[in-house]
Amino acid sequence: MNPILEALIKSVAVLAVALAGFAYMTWVERKFISRLQARIGPNRAGPFGLLQPVADGIKLIFKESITPANVDVLVYFLAPIVAVVPALVLFAVIPFGSDPAFQLASNINVGALYVMAVLGVGIYGMILAGWSSNNKYALLGGLRASAQVISYELGLGLAVLSVIMMASSASLNDIVAYQQPGNILGWLIFRQPIAAVIFAITALAELARAPFDLVEAEQELTAGFMTEYGGMKFALFYMSEYVKMIGMSALFVTFFLGGWSGPFVNEAPALSLVYFAIKVLACLLVMVWVRATLPRFRYDKLMGFGWKVLLPLGLLNVVVTALLIVAGVPGYK
Amino acid sequence: MMDKFVAVVTKIPVGFATVLKTFFRKPVTIQYPEQTKPMSARFRGRHHLKRYDDGLEKCIGCALCAAACPADAIYVEAAENTNEQRYSPGERYAKTYEINMLRCIFCGYCEDACPTNAIVLEPMEFPTGYTRDSMIYVKDMLLEAPPPGAPATPQQTPPGKYDRAILPFPPITD
Ligand code: SF4
Ligand code: SF4
Predict the structure, then answer these.
(1) Considering only CB atoms, which residues of chain A are within 8 Å of chain B?
(2) How do residues B55-103 score in pLDDT, each as one tens digit?
(3) Buried-exposed string A105-122: b where 16+ CB fall within 10 A, e elsewhere
(4) Do B29 and A39 touch (CB under 8 A)?
(5) Total-model pTM
C-alpha cells in the first residue's frame, strides 16, 4: 500500500479512537466517581446516560463564542489548539499492538524522548491561555501550571530514564519487547516499583489532575487558566486534558505494564490491542479512584514534594538501577 | 519526622480502601421526579384553599393573609356574596386570589393570619414551572375540590343562613 495513504488511514483511525475515548472517558469518569461517592451519576440521556457526552458536545457547540475584552486575540485563540495538538500527537509512537501495523510511526528509536518533548510542549497551551486571557485568575492558573508541570517533569524524566536504562533503548517497541519473557513478572513495575510510583505521581501532576489540580483550583482560581474560555474553546482544553490522560495511561502501560503483551498474542495479534485497551482502562479507573480519594495539595507543599522528595528519590533510583545493572544482578541485565 | 511519614503513608491505603468500599454500597441518590422523599406530615409545602363540608369556600376575602405576608406574595380582591351566588359564608368572598410562588418564602404567616383557617400549607408537590407567569398560582389552582357529594361554588343558599362568617373559635365577647 502507498505509505502516505497508510499513514493517513492510521492517523484518522487513531484520532477517531482518541476522540471517542475522550468523550466516553468523561462518561466513565463521571459514572465511576459517582459510584465511589455513593451516587448514581448521569443516567438521563440515553440508557445509563450513555448519550451524555453527545449532549454535552452539542451543548458546547451551540454556546456563544465570546471573546472577552482586551485579550490578546491571536494567542487567545491559539492556546486551546496548542494545548490539544501535543496531546494528540503523543499517540504517534505508542505501540498499540504486537503488529507493526498497530503503530503510527513504527519504531522511532527515540520514542521515549519524543514523548517527553511533546509533553513539554503541552504546557504552552496552559501558559498562553493564562497569559492572553487578561484575567488575574487565569494568569495565576497559568503561572501555577507552568511551575508545577516544569518541576514534575524532572521526576517524570528520571522515572522514564530508569526504564530506558533497563531496556537499554529509548524506543518504546524495544521497551515493550524487553518486558516479554512470557510471564507477568517480566513487567517493569515489578523490577522498577519506585520508578513506577514516581511515574504515576508525576503523571498525575503533569496532567494537573487531583490531587494536583491546583491549576484549576476552583475555590481560589475559579477555573484557573481556562476561566475566560467557553464553548468549543473550553471543550478543546477539556479534550486535551482527557486525551492526555489516555496518553499518559498508555505510556504507563507501555513502560511498566508490559505494553500490549498478554497470553496468546502470537496466535492472534488482534488480541494485543484488546490487552492494551484493558490495561489503559484500568489505569484510567485508578486515576479516577485517586481523584475520589485524595484532597488537593497546598501549593507550597506541592512544590516541596516535587523538588525535595520526588526528584532526589528519582535520582537515587537511577543510581541504584545503574549499580544493579553494572553488577549484573539477575533481572537487571 | 520519620514516624510522621510512616503514619501518613500507612493511612493513604486505608483511605483508598474506604473509597473503594463505597463503590459496592447502594447509591443514596433519590431519582427525584420518579421517586420522592417521604415528607413530614407538618411540612409547609404548597398552599391550599380549603372548603367547608357543604362545599362553601372558607376564604372570606379579608386579605389579612396578604397583609401578613412578609414577601408580599399574595394578592386578594374581594367581592360581595349574595344568596343566589354564594361562594363563602358571610358578606364577601375572594374574587381573585393569587400567590406568586417565586416570591413566597413558605413561612406560613398567611396560615397564621387567616381568621377562618382557609389557607393551609400542606406537604404537596413543590411548585415548579418553565415561565414566571406559570408560577403565579391563581385561585382555581389553589382551591380544593369540593368534598364528595357537596356542590361546588357558587351555590344558592337560603336567606339568613350564612349572613355571618364562620369563625373556628368562639367570638370574643366582653
Ligand atoms: S407562606 Fe409566607 S411568604 Fe408564602 S404566601 Fe404565606 S405569608 Fe406569604
Ligand atoms: S385566605 Fe384567609 S386571610 Fe386570606 S383572604 Fe382568605 S380568609 Fe382572609
Answers:
(1) 34-40, 289, 292-294
(2) 899 999 999 999 999 999 999 999 998 888 999 888 899 999 999 999 9
(3) eeebeebbbbbbebbbeb
(4) yes
(5) 0.75
